[in-house]
Design brief:
Elements: H1 8-21, E1 25-28, E2 37-40, H2 46-54, E3 59-64, H3 70-85, H4 90-110, E4 114-116, H5 123-135, E5 139-142, H6 164-173, E6 178-185, E7 190-193, E8 197-198, H7 205-228
Parallel strand pairs: 1-7, 2-5, 2-6, 3-4, 3-5
Antiparallel strand pairs: 6-7, 6-8
Helix pairs in contact: 1-2, 1-4, 3-4, 5-6
Amino acid sequence: MSGRFYGGFASVIRRLVQLAIGRYEVKMLGVPPAPSVYVVHHRNTRGPITSIAWLDTHCHLWALSAFFTRTGCFDQYTGYTFTRRYGMPWFLAAAIALPASLFVSRLLNSLKAIPVYRGSTRILSTVRRTVAALKAGESVLISPDIDYTDSGSGMGVMHPGFLHVEKFFSAESGTHASFVPVHIDRQRRAIYVGEAIRFAGRKSFRIEKDEVYARISREFSRLERLEREGGTA
């Protein structure tokens, strides 16, 4: 990678994360075009963190919209993450959330992440910003798994809504978006980058969306099988 893509703050944190988690070898099992939509298992932020740190391409990360402002981030931590999920009393959650919200909101903006507006018509803004990034030749990294807290190594059931990026991107660019499954093998400290999955455009979007979803799932299964078999392609 050449030149600076992320902001200065994110670049420093990215280097610190690399030092903290150690090197991961990127194993290219396909030839993803630039740009692509990289799809990785969330694993309670481990997937995106490892991918941003070691992938051989810069990406705009999809992240929950609440985390982009200090107040939104603070409310998310005190109203759900630290209290309802981890069972902390509010005063302790608030004490942790205050510095955490300052850090996380600054980091996401410096990473040039794209806000995801769940359960809102503003989700169209997420799709449009993603399409704009792809048209500018910049890749995107998303974690569409429904159970983002799942600590297992494999990608589970995914929200299919991310595939609507194709509908808007193809309409504006005349070409098809590339969806590239990414699997992280923590034991062998490897990142497997799979084959790019694309729409063919010969059927209606509604029908082909389900077919592409199935193909992405099969590619994830192939990458997970590689991990079980020792990482040999």
